[in-house]
Design brief:
The protein has about 350 residues and is an alpha/beta fold. The chain has two domains: about 130 residues, Cytidine Deaminase, domain 2; about 210 residues, Dihydrofolate Reductase, subunit A (3-Layer(aba) Sandwich). It has a nine-stranded mixed sheet, sandwiched between helices. The chain has a five-stranded mixed sheet with strand order 2-1-3-4-5, with helices on both faces. The chain has a two-stranded antiparallel sheet with strand order 7-14. β8, α8 and β9 form a beta-alpha-beta unit. Bound molecules: NADP nicotinamide-adenine-dinucleotide phosphate. NADP nicotinamide-adenine-dinucleotide phosphate binds next to β6, β7, β8, α8 and α12.
Amino acid sequence: MDEREAMAHALSLAWRGWGRVHPNPLVGAVVLADGLVVGEGWHAEFGGRHAEPGALERAGERARGATLVVTLEPCDHQGKQPPCTEAILRAGVRRVVAGLADPNPAASGGAARLGSLGLQVELGVAREAVATQNARFLHGFRNQSRPFVALKLATSLDGRIADSSGHSRWISGEPARDYVHWLRAGFAAIGVGGRTARLDDPRLTVRGPVTPRVTPRRVIFDAGADIDSRLTLVRTAGEAATTVVTASDAPSDRVERLLSAGVSVVRAGTLEEGLRMLRGEGIDSLLVEGGGRLAGALLGLGLVDRYYWVQSPLWLGDRGVPATAGLPSDPIARAERWAVVERRALGEDTLLVADRR
Ligand SMILES: NC(=O)c1ccc[n+]([C@@H]2O[C@H](COP(=O)([O-])OP(=O)(O)OC[C@H]3O[C@@H](n4cnc5c(N)ncnc54)[C@H](OP(=O)(O)O)[C@@H]3O)[C@@H](O)[C@H]2O)c1
């Protein structure tokens, strides 16, 4: 295995911390000796051991003179865990290959320190892939005014998210739905529009292989606070927190009814303000799962950072519900072009993940 392959392997190890390590980054590490992997590590749990000491411990004496390949720059500070630079120095590693420079000013500087002590250090290998994997973590350093917002939609081949009577169960197949449960575990909140809450009556809980360390909050965007107390999201507010984001002038009696059912209410003048207020309540990432009007409004305002598009091989026709209603049309020359960061099959469906540039 060469260093690039080892970095790809470290990236795949890092996913094992999905849903468990946040607010820390996902990190994976591999110790490479004579082209062989002699140690693997990953950050598995918030507050727990970092990836590097785990990989080095597994490698033992074989780490001496070897190369450590790690997705994020090794930390150089005492936090809940000791500095990784110390473990690296103790292990006698000769070379360190790291992906992304640590954006956290409190923890960064590891690469420079190791370099100054005579180790060979290369920083920036597969930087893009590491940044894509840690988009939620990085967003927090760039933008404190709203959560990292991802949109996930399952559409037909002709871009519809429901049939003409508003039914969307099920456009996608089981593998895609399993994927969404895995995906939800990595977000602080899962959001839907009011009409989706009323028509689909979803649970928006995580029922996949990863149990998130912090249960995602369920958020309904409904300007008029027209959310019936019999809806599942309201009835189960005691098991997983539910918030309704309403317009500032939403009818007070409806708001009162929600509050007495244990649902929290965020009153906001605009969607942007709603997101800002959610951020103020500690929601640093939000996965919006439709419907089309909420998706169109968020996209139109430039408030979506990532799109998880599940495309299913069926046709729903002109009267089906459009995936992004109300999105303004730009001429092709000025249209936003996003960066594709992942593409793969989920059973009969196709997943495409694209990031706003
Ligand atoms: N295939 C899929 O992935 C998928 C996913 C979800 C839903 N669906 C389907 O999509 C359909 C519903 O989609 P839809 O487009 O009709 O409705 P929707 O997007 O679910 O709901 C629109 C809601 O968003 C709120 N909203 C829009 N802009 C807002 C703003 N600026 N501030 C606050 N709230 C705002 C609206 O509140 P007000 O009306 O009070 O303004 C309205 O309640 C259903 O048939 C559902 O089955 C499919």
